[in-house]
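Structure in, sequence out. Go:
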């Protein structure tokens, strides 16, 4: 005990003990701050993780929608609609009737068909196709044709359904 009292009176030991106390306090405050920072970082990681999961799920949903829309577009490109089938049937019937009634129709028809095929090839690749989409509203044209046709077309439509 005497030795401890003698050592505490020495200025070197007093300075060393004060320095160790300050170092111990700094160490404790560092541990506390480290725990707070760790909690803060963990909460941010949790928030960012939830946001990332939500964004990834949204991305998956959007990819699925894009896939479905691509499939639907391909179906529309391949599968003709009811109005197109009706129009094709009407053209077929008209051509067959003209072949029966008009004697020189078939050669003239072949010449016109070749010319129209060339125009369609040009229209599929270029500025003409873009202008056709803007200028010719298909649905209004079909409605006008429907109103002009009348009863014979209605009978053919019934025959087509059955």
């Amino acid at each position: 005990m005497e030795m401890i009292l003698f050592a505490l009176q020495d200025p070197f030991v007093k300075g060393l003990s004060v320095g160790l106390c300050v170092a111990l306090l700094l160490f404790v405050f560092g541990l506390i701050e480290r725990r707070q920072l760790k909690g803060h970082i963990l909460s941010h990681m949790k928030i960012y993780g939830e946001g990332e999961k939500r964004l990834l799920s949204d991305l998956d949903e959007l990819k699925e929608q894009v896939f479905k829309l691509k499939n639907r577009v391909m179906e529309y490109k391949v599968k003709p609609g009811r109005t197109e089938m009706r129009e094709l049937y009407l053209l077929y019937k008209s051509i067959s009737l003209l072949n029966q009634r008009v004697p020189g129709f078939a050669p003239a028809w072949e010449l016109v068909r070749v010319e129209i095929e060339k125009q369609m090839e040009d229209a599929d690749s270029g500025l003409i196709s873009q202008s056709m989409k803007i200028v010719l509203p298909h649905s209004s044209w079909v409605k006008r044709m429907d109103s002009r046709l009348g009863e014979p077309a209605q009978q053919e439509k019934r025959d087509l359904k059955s």
